[in-house]
Amino acid sequence: MAKFSWLKNPWKQSDWFETVAVAQERARKRLPKSVYGALVAGSEAGITVDDNLAAFRELGFAPHVAGLSEKRDMGTRVMGQDVAMPVLISPTGVQAVHPDGEVAVARAAAARGIAMGLSSFASKSIEDVAAANDKTFFQMYWVGSRDVLVQRMERARAAGAKGLIMTLDWSFSNGRDWGSPAIPERMSLDAMVKFAPEGIIRPKWLLDWARTGGVPDLTTPNLTPPGGDTPTFFGAYGEWMSTPLPTWEDVAWLREQWGDAPFMLKGVMRVDDAKRAVDAGVTAISVSNHGGNNLDGTPAPIRALPAIAEAVGNDIEVLLDGGIRRGSDVVKAVALGADAVMIGRAYLWGLAANGQAGVENVLDILGGGIGSALLGLGRDSIHDLTPGDVVVPPGFRRDLGVE
Ligand SMILES: Cc1cc2nc3c(=O)[nH]c(=O)nc-3n(C[C@H](O)[C@H](O)[C@H](O)COP(=O)(O)O)c2cc1C
After folding, report:
1. Which of 347, 354, 364, 362 is CA-nearest to residue 31?
2. Is 383 a catalytic residue?
3. What is the SS3 assignment for 136?
4. How far are the Cα atoms of 125, 192, 220 from residue 186, in angstroms, in the given order?
5. How many angstroms separate the alpha carbon of residue 322 from the centre of ligand 1?
6. Where are the beta strands (DSSP E) in 277-328?
7. If we measure between CA atoms, which residue out of 111, 41, 60, 35 comes closest to residue 352?
């Protein structure tokens, strides 16, 4: 066999991909249908998930042609951390994408000098993820009693989390016109038999898991009670559904428990809510509709961003997430008032396509795209971008919650 080792498969596809869309296509081919469907997500008619992408396409640029800058400075500071570009990993509670899961994402983010957001519904523990990236923020929903919330938050702090992200925009919507993927409660023998046909036709994915000697266990290690069992994804979801909904006083209380460390409220879409977030003492908000997975009909965050940034941009950091697939999207968001953006599906496609290297590949695509847009616009720094760099068509903005 060794004497044929020079014989390489000339048709073998390179693992590198050139755009996020190509990574998504690779993910579609590599993942079992139900796992891919869980990442596509969206809700109801998919109006919001579609608008998140469509809105970026409606925006244009006003480029210069000569006298351009050799320098293209992308570094910034977000939530108390210096980052190489204004892009953060948005927390996603997903399972079974890749055996290295969020640890691979955290390593890729660290390798590219950016911060990591870890979902409390993630498949890897905050201890492992914070060890892989010292710029890790832990994300929580309002799940469980105040004592339980504090216990989870203190665990994250002890593990080295540098900031807390509170996500409050979940609306428990159910049903998608294109159907929701069937996801087992646990990987029992029954479930393995039921899902085996999906896995068998995805040999690369199966091989990745076989190499680690396991199957996805579909649990939420960051929600394990002290001395108790780790809840399953659905068990944790049940606890969430039965938790009374938080008030603005609860938000201020949680922020106080976290002390002086950076605190982000994720999911803000309205100017009045952004102002209340300032009153609650947050460090940052993310203008977000949860990637279109919630209340369908909510407009794209990029439409709501300008009014929110104008109202509170001098008081707190304003981030945006939803629909970022290119470096030029990042530049559009920053020009319209965001301090930075967070990405969700973009890195999930990279992770599915090629593990840690795939996430690095996605971050390189975004970095390259930011550089190219800065060059075209004649800006030597992301900090010099202004709304005038972007062509905003009439009727684009949605100024929500403006008195
Ligand atoms: C599959 C999936 C799971 C998600 N899980 C979480 C989560 O656990 N916590 C959270 O705050 N946001 C979650 N989000 C929302 C993302 O953090 C982010 O807001 C969204 O993905 C941004 O949109 P994009 O995917 O177009 O970049 C999830 C998104 C997706 C697609």
Report:
1. 354
2. no
3. strand
4. 18, 9, 11
5. 8
6. 284-288, 317-321
7. 35
176 strand-pairing partners: 44
Q: For residue range 208-257, list pLDDT tens digits in order.
A: 998 887 888 889 999 999 999 999 988 999 999 999 999 999 999 999 99
Separation of alpha carbons 36 and 29, rounded Å = 9
pLDDT of residue 5: 59
β-strand partners of 343: 89
Atom number of ligand 1 nearest to Cα 286: 19
Residue with CA at minimum distance from ligand 1 atom 20: 291
Shortest-distance atom of ligand 1 to CA 38: 1
Q: Where are the beta strands (DSSP E) in 90-195?
A: 116-119, 136-140, 163-167
Q: Are the beta carbons of 167 and 216 closer than 8 angstroms?
A: no
| Dihedral pair phi/psi, residue 57, rounded to 5° | -70, -25
Largest CA distance in the chain: 76
**What would the two tokens of residue 29 be?**
């081919």
Which residues form ligand 1's pocket by a CB distance below 6 Å? 38-39, 41, 52, 90-94, 119, 121, 139, 167, 266, 288, 290-291, 293, 321-324, 343-346
pLDDT digits (tens, 9 = 90+) for 68-99: 999 999 999 999 999 999 999 999 999 899 99
The pLDDT score that the predictor gives to residue 394 is 98
